[in-house]
Amino acid sequence: MYCPAGDFYIDPWRPVDRAVITHAHADHARTGHTHYLATNVSEHVLRSRLGAIDLQTLAYGEAITINGVVVSLHPAGHVLGSGQVRIAHAGRVWVASGDYKTAPDATCAPFEAVACDTFITESTFGLPIYRWPSDAEVFADINAWWSANAAQGLASVLYCYSFGKAQRILSGVDASIGPIVVHGAVQVLNAAYRASGVALPETHLVTEITDKALLKRALVLAPPSVAGSSWMKRFGEYRDAFASGWMLLRGARRRRGVDRGFVLSDHADWPGLHSAIAATGCEQVIVTHGSTPVMVRYLEENGLSARAFTTEFGDDTLDDSVEIAPA
Asked: Which of 102, 90, 62 is nearest to 3 (CA)?
């Protein structure tokens, strides 16, 4: 997405001079740009993923002017440091949401509705079937599953995306059930979260636990890309599960080939999308990625001007499919 008046891009995939980054997932934050602008809360995660970059940061709500365009970043509630981009120019206000969710999350600032004329919204889960259970319900189910497995002497392997989902799970599970083991890709990001002031329970790399009896009581958080790898052999017999919004569909669970599916998404569900859009008071909505035809039709039927815009942004699956990190 390009802003001609300000001569900057939002979450560009190819190298540009000035990039405004909504958050640090791999389909939104890439290497190669000359200058980066993002929230100050996202700095530790961005640097852990992108290395040495020319990064300017803003506090939420702080505004700067780029070539006559006033730009500010506002909480998106997606992951740590995620920000919506507010652009004000010539008496008009546009907001690009990036990825967002309206559900509560102890590991990041909550979504903030920003008044605008045009709202660019994601629609990853833009179908009426997608309605999330409460976090309390999901975490209770995870804890009960982990506890039951531990009682049988079986490790509980929970596949989840390394950035955002893993830390959200850590914030809600009962660490008294047993040790928590994480893949190296998760541990690196845990360190960035802790450096940003987010409290997480103690986590261990598998190489740090020499007592096999402890491993048999462990909750193991790992990216889905390690399923079936040699790394998994260290746990012997185990039970596995996947945490994602896609787990609402039985077919998705079958394709993953896991014992359990926990419905936990870092994107807004159908009611969340529409409550967020309504709260902006916008006149026009531009829908990006996901179920765009359904969203556009529904919005138009409800009196808004709406259209779709094609982007290369992915869904929940892309980030870890391209991620390479130590075990």
From this structure: 90
| Residues in the chain, pLDDT under 70 | 253-254, 312-327
Q: Count of domains in the chain? A: 2
Residues 6 or more apart whose Cβ sits within 8 Å of residue 255: none
* Under 8 Å between Cβ of 309 and 119: no
User: Domain boundary residue among 235, 262, 289?
Assistant: 262
Check whether residue 100 and residue 171 sit in a common domain.
no
Final residue in a domain of this structure, among 224, 243, 262: 262
Query: Which residue, chain included where needed, has tokens 């869904």?
Result: 315
pLDDT in tens, 105-145: 999 999 999 999 999 999 999 999 999 999 999 999 999 99
Domain range for 253 is 135-262
pLDDT digits (tens, 9 = 90+) for 247-287: 998 777 667 789 999 999 999 999 999 999 999 999 999 99
pLDDT for the residue numbered 323: 39
pTM of the prediction?
Answer: 0.92
What whole-number distance in Å separates Cα of residue 261 and Cα of residue 270?
Answer: 20
Do 185 and 102 have their domain in common?
Answer: no
List CB contacts of 231: < 8 A, sequence separation 6 or more: 183, 206, 222, 327
